[in-house]
Amino acid sequence: MTALSSTRLKHQVTLLAPDDIDNGRGGRKPNPATGGWKAYAKPWAEVIALRGDEAVRQSVERSAQLWRVEIRIRDDVTPSHRVRWGTIVMQVKAAAPNSAGDGLVMTCLSERTA
């Protein structure tokens, strides 16, 4: 088991949670004041680009980049969250503790319209 060394945590990221409000009809909608996302933490991370690809969604070609983001262990990150690193916003696809149990490894995806 390799412990998470602070020397690897060189990038500060922002963790984003969905920010929904009542829609007045018994449901929920994204909060227009925050764009539907609110920042709740700014941990230091190790960010590694894994692979890039192209995807077609709704007849629009997009470039897709897969990322590995590791932060200190915490229990408030789920696949419904996002990670922002500078101008890159990534959707969390999976989050699991590392083998030493002191870090959280997230697999994330960012997309850009081509």
Automatic annotation (TrEMBL):
<feature type="region of interest" description="Disordered">
    <location>
        <begin position="17"/>
        <end position="37"/>
    </location>
</feature>
<dbReference type="Pfam" id="PF05521">
    <property type="entry name" value="Phage_HCP"/>
</dbReference>
<dbReference type="InterPro" id="IPR038666">
    <property type="entry name" value="SSP1_head-tail_sf"/>
</dbReference>
<protein>
    <recommendedName>
        <fullName>Head-tail adaptor protein</fullName>
    </recommendedName>
</protein>
<dbReference type="InterPro" id="IPR008767">
    <property type="entry name" value="Phage_SPP1_head-tail_adaptor"/>
</dbReference>
